Amino acid sequence: MIKTVGYGAQAATSKLERMEFERDDPKPNEVVIDVLFTGVCHSDIHQVKNEWKNTVYPCVPGHEIVGRVSRTGGEVTRFKEGDLVGVGCMIDSCRQCEPCESGEENYCEGPNGWLATYNGPMVPATEADNGENMYGRDNTFGGYSNIVVVPEDFVLAIPDGLDPKAAAPILCAGVTTWSPLNHWGVGKGDSVAIVGFGGLGHMALKLAAAIGAEVTVLTSTPEKIEEAKRMGAHAAFVETDKTSLTPLAGSFDLILSTVPDKHEVGTLLDLLKRDASLVVVGNLDVIDGVDNSKLAFHRQSVAGSLIGSIAETQDVLDFCASNGIAPDVEVIDIKDINDAFTRVENGEARYRYVIDMATLT
Amino acid sequence: MIKTVGYGAQAATSKLERMEFERDDPKPNEVVIDVLFTGVCHSDIHQVKNEWKNTVYPCVPGHEIVGRVSRTGGEVTRFKEGDLVGVGCMIDSCRQCEPCESGEENYCEGPNGWLATYNGPMVPATEADNGENMYGRDNTFGGYSNIVVVPEDFVLAIPDGLDPKAAAPILCAGVTTWSPLNHWGVGKGDSVAIVGFGGLGHMALKLAAAIGAEVTVLTSTPEKIEEAKRMGAHAAFVETDKTSLTPLAGSFDLILSTVPDKHEVGTLLDLLKRDASLVVVGNLDVIDGVDNSKLAFHRQSVAGSLIGSIAETQDVLDFCASNGIAPDVEVIDIKDINDAFTRVENGEARYRYVIDMATLT
C-alpha cells in the first residue's frame, strides 16, 4: 500500500480538508505518479457538493493532473521513472464495448461505464449486481493528492514545450472543448461561437482560433470582452446584449456552450446557420429553450459532448505544444482550495486555478 | 381572374365555411390546376385556429393537393393540360439564397422565406419593409378549393400507379418524414423508432420499412399496436409502457417524433444509440426534456426538420409508386370538414382524411 495525502470532503456540506489514505500498489500495467500540479475544474465543485446527486464520500477531487512517474508496474512499456505525464478524467474503461474498441472510451457502454479519476465508476453497481462493479471499487480518489496510480493506457505524455502547470487544465478543459471541435469538423474559416468564457471557454477560444476558425465569444461578464479579443477572438459580446447579437443571426457553423450551469439556449439557436449545431459541454442539466419553431426551420441540432477520448487528449496536448497554446492559469496553495472554489463559483478565476501540489506537505 | 370556391375560416374561433374568391390568372410560368383531392393535415388545424400565432384570415387551408392541369402559362414546359399533378406545402421561394440554389427551398433564407401554399409568406413583411414582401401577397389560399394556380417549379408530377386520392398525403405527411430519413442517412438494417402513429407516423413507418430499416412504433393509442405491425413495424409499444421500453435503451439509430403537440422527450433519449439523433417533425413548440445528462453521455443530438424540398417531394412520390406504398386514407365530403378536424384532434383518423373536391359544388 502507498501512503497518500490529499484534500477531500467528507460530506456535501463539508469544506475540503487534509486527509490521509492509502492507495493500492501498482498492478503490472499501472504507473505511480508523483503529482506536481492539479487544475481546479468547475465539476470538482459540482461533485464535492453533490450537485449531480451521485457523489461518493469521502470525495477527493482532481482530474487535471500533471506529475512525474516514480514507479512502473512490470508490464508498463510506454513510460519510465522521471517521465512528465498527465491524467485526465478517466483512469480506466471496460475496454470491450464498441466505443472502447473504437477508441472512444469516454462513451464507454460497459456495465459500469468508464472509471472516473475520482468518484469511482460512472455507472455505479446496483443491488442487482450485489453492489459489485467491474472495477472492484466504488470510489476513487483524484489528483488533489500527492500520488496517483493509473493504468498506463490512461496516462498521457506531456510533450516538451508545455509548461507543466499550464498543461494540467488541458487534460479536462482542453479536451472537453477540443473533442467537439474535432467531431463536428471545425476547420479553417469556419465561424464558431463560444458561450461562457471561463476555464473551458477560454481554452475553446484558443483552440478554435489556432485551428483557423473565426471565433466569437459570448460572455456574461463585460470585463472579459477585451480579454477575449486579446486571446484571439474575432469579436466578443455580452450574451444578453440583444442589439449586438441580432446581426449575428444565422452566422455560426457551430456554437459551443461551456456555461457550467443551467442555461436557456433559445437566443443562441437564432445565431446558428442551417444544418449547424449547438453543442453543450458545460452543463449536465436539462437544456431549456430548445425551440423547434427555430430548429426545424433551419434543420439545426442541439447536441451534448462528454470530455474526450484518450487519443483526443494526447492530440490536444500535442496540438497545444506545437501551436504554443496554453491555458491562462493562476497557481494556488492547496490550503486556499476552499476559497478558490468560491471564486470559481463567482466567476472570478482568470482563467483556471492550478494547485501547486508541493504545497501539500 | 379565376372564380374559385373553397372552404375557409374567417377567424380563429370560426368553423370552416364555403366561400367564393378570385385567383389571379396564371403568369407565364404558372399552371392552373383543377383540384381532385386534398389531404387534411394536422397543421391545417393549428393554422386555422391560430395556434402558431401567425394566421392570416380568411384562412383557406390545404397543402396536400392532387389535381389535373387545366391550363398552362406560355412559358410552362414540364406540364400540359390533363396531367395529373400535385402541390405540397410550398408554391414559391426566393430562388436566390444558398438553400434555394442547393435545391432545399424548404429552408429558403430569402427575406420572406418560402411562400406557403396557404397563409402567405413564411416570413411576413414587417413595417420596416412598408409591409411589402417579395411575393406581393400577404395571404395565399390553399387546396380546400376547386382551383389552384402554382408556378410550375413547385408542381409535382404524380407518377403512374399512384391512386390520386392516396397520393395527396404524400405531398406533406410523406415528404415531411421522407426528408429526415433521407438526410440522416437511414438505410437497410438501421434501427428506427417512429413516435406518434397518425398521418405522418404511419407514412414514416411505411417509408422506413420500404428502405429496409427495422422500424419500431411508439404510440399513445393501444389499439394502434396491431395496426402498426400489420403495416410493417418490427415492434410497436405504447410509449408510456416503461416495462416494454426499458430493453430498448440505446437501440435506435434515429428516432423520428411525429407527435403534433408539445411532447416531453426525456424517455426517448434513453433509447438512442451513441451519436444518434432524435428528429422532431411534428411539433413546432419548445421541446421539453432535452436532458444533457443523457445527450452528453452518448454524444446524441436533438434536431428539427421542416417538410422537404421539391426534389425530395418528387423522390418520395416516385418511391411510393415504385414500392407500392400509399397512405391509408378515408375520403370525406368537404361539408364534413369541421367534424374531420375534431376527429383528427381526437386521434380518430385512420390515418389521413382526404377531401373529395368533387363534393364542393
From TrEMBL, chains A, B:
Query: Which keywords annotate this record?
Result: Metal-binding, Oxidoreductase, Zinc
Matching entries from InterPro entries are given as:
ADH-like_C (IPR013149), ADH-like_N (IPR013154), ADH_Zn_CS (IPR002328), CAD-like (IPR047109), D-isomer_DH_CS1 (IPR029752), ER (IPR020843), GroES-like_sf (IPR011032), NAD(P)-bd_dom_sf (IPR036291)
GO function term, MF aspect, one: zinc ion binding
Question: Transmembrane ranges?
Answer: none
Question: What's the domain of life for this entry?
Answer: Bacteria
Statement: the UniProt record of this protein carries the keyword Zinc = yes
What this protein needs as a cofactor is: Zn(2+)
EC nos: 1.-.-.-
Q: Which Pfam families match?
A: ADH_N, ADH_zinc_N
In what residue span(s) does the Enoyl reductase (ER) domain sit? 11-355
Record keyword Oxidoreductase present: yes
Family that this chain belongs to? Belongs to the zinc-containing alcohol dehydrogenase family.
Instruction: Spell out the protein name for this chain.
Output: Putative zinc-type alcohol dehydrogenase-like protein
Ranked from the top, the taxonomy reads: Bacteria, Pseudomonadati, Pseudomonadota, Alphaproteobacteria, Caulobacterales
